[in-house]
Amino acid sequence: MLQQQLPKQDGSIETVKIFTIEELKKATNDFNETTIIGRRGFGTIYKGVLTGNKIVAIKKSLVVDQSQIEQFVNEVIVLSQINHRNVVRLLGCCLETEVPLLVYEFITNGTLFHHIHEVGQAFSIPWKIRLRIAKETAGALSYLHSAASTPIIHRDVK
To answer: Which pTM was predicted?
Structure first.
């Protein structure tokens, strides 16, 4: 169902890849604890290395029911259409597990929140750069709210 609804690039290439669970297990050393880079209310985020040394972030949600899986499918369809330089790109998903997995591009250097609020930070971000970051963040949110084909309200900007 999901593959049929995903948008195509140039009419032939899917913009979102459907990963196998084996690919993601290999990328995360079987979802080893050492590959965990974050835990949130929705689940766990793993850092993985795909074949070809492509580094990714893999979100594994908490156990969901059938209605949440349908919502997940709809979200993948919407997220697959997002293309903005300041929004983390969805690379694909895995549907072979009880809990669907999302695969995103990995952003190095941590989150903006970490850089602004980290205690003992060796340097402070200058106000000129902070203002540029705020402007670019506002532009990305504006894109998600109004320019995307389906409006998206993020609720977890980092």
So the answer is: 0.80
Domain that holds residue 53: 2-108
Q: Please check whether residues 98 and 154 belong to one and the same domain.
A: no
pLDDT tens, the chain, 158 aa long: 455 555 554 444 447 899 999 999 999 999 999 999 988 777 899 999 999 999 999 999 876 677 777 777 777 887 888 888 888 899 999 989 888 899 999 998 877 777 777 766 656 778 898 899 999 999 999 998 887 677 888 777 76
**Rounded alpha-carbon distances, angstroms, from residue 51 to 16, 30, 76, 83:** 17, 15, 23, 24
Catalytic residue among 10, 30, 65, 156: 156
Examine the residue annotation and report whether 10 is marked as an active-site residue of this protein: no
- Residues 91 and 34 occupy one common structural domain: yes
